[in-house]
Amino acid sequence: MTRLSSPAHLRQVRTGNMHAVLVAMLDGPASRAELAQRTGLTKATVASLVEPLLGQRILAEGAVVNAGRGRPSRPLRFAATGPVAIGAEINVRHLGVTVQRLDASTEFERRIEVDNCRATAADIVTRLADLIRTAIAACGRDPLGIGLAVPGIVQDGAVVHTPNVPSLNGIHLGDQLAAELGRPGTTVAVDNEANLAALAHVWPHRLAGDDFVYVSGDVGIGAGIVIGGAMFRGRSGFAGELGHVIIERTGHPCPCGSRGCVEQYAGLDAIFQAAGKRDLAALLLALDHGDPRALAAVETASAALGAALAALINICDIETVVLGGSYAALFDHIAPGVHTELDTGVLAATRRPIHLTTSAFGRAAVTRGAAALITRRHCLEPNLLLPPGRRQ
Ligand SMILES: [Zn+2]
């Protein structure tokens, strides 16, 4: 048992206080006195905690501000040249990367269209490593780590089920990516893309409330379910497989092995095929011109997606749905049909309307959330930000 006055206990308290200071800083620039107010710590404690964060250029001091009758103060903010994390994404038809600071401000963002569906895992990792090297060169400093999003189920760092990018099945992507980058010690944390996009709406700020479902719509459809501000993953990480909810038992076959999955009606490829369009830009143009075939394809997709979401909400009693991925671009076209299904299919909708919204991050939500996986860990365990000799 740790004694209250023991060095181990004091270190624990100091680490907890530093965590509190970093989290308080996420609410915006603040003087030491304001930080004391936000955290409930004494000014002297805040001053002693801030010193190593300034020394490591994690925080920076602004110019002196004379605020009324009080003593002049120098507001602290996260340093523009401070630590960064990388968020990366492998999806069916694109790769993406975001470089993000601890306060979630973005320093670099890029997305390239590439067909990963038929590519080998080695080719995908090589291309992604090139993209990450470009990002590291652009920001000019080594990242704290890399969060990597994949369109599938991840268990213990291994991709275990990714029907739309089959070459990734069974691959330990983190190890392969670190080796390909020539940075074998780099932390690479791999997770499902919808879960990570949902995380972008939880950390550092709760942008969609405490209870919501983030729906990631591309070729596949995934959902990140957040309950009480925490991700609901299920027993083995399979929670949120919205795309494989069966809406027609004798319907179209799905790469997952089942039939009639919602993905076969509301997934991007299903919409393109029904609309007779090759890509999102062509589909949006056709919708804007009132093309009947495109409108019918989107109507079918909206009804299928709405039916699957209604089933999910009837079970989880969630009040907010965030539509992301390509659904963000299609929001104005699909939201009315989804709303209709939710209004008729969700029991609770008669008492409380379901809030249907789109992600403020557009198609970048996944890489933002992947980076947040790393920045959140470092804010919660601030010792990771300090060199070994300066840790608490
Ligand atoms: Zn399926």
Description:
The strands form four sheets. Strands 5-4-3-6-9 form a five-stranded mixed sheet. It is of the alpha/beta class and 392 residues long. The chain is globular, with a radius of gyration of 23 Å. Strand 10 (212-217) and strand 11 form a beta hairpin. The chain starts with 6 loop residues before the first helix and ends in a 12-residue tail after the last helix. It has 13 helices and 14 strands. Zinc ion is lined by residues 244, 254, 256, 258, 261, 263.
Terminal-residue CA separation = 19 Å
Mean pLDDT: 92
- Which compounds are bound in this model? zinc ion
Total helices: the number is 13
The CATH homologous superfamily of the largest domain is named ATPase, nucleotide binding domain
- What is the number of E strands? 14
Shape: globular
- Low-confidence regions: none
The spatial strand order of the largest sheet comes to: 5-4-3-6-9
CATH topology of the largest domain, what is it called?
Nucleotidyltransferase, domain 5
What's the helical proportion of residues?
25-40%
Number of domains: 3
CATH architecture classification of the largest domain: 2-Layer Sandwich
CATH top level assignment of the largest domain: Alpha Beta
Quote the beta fraction: 15-25%
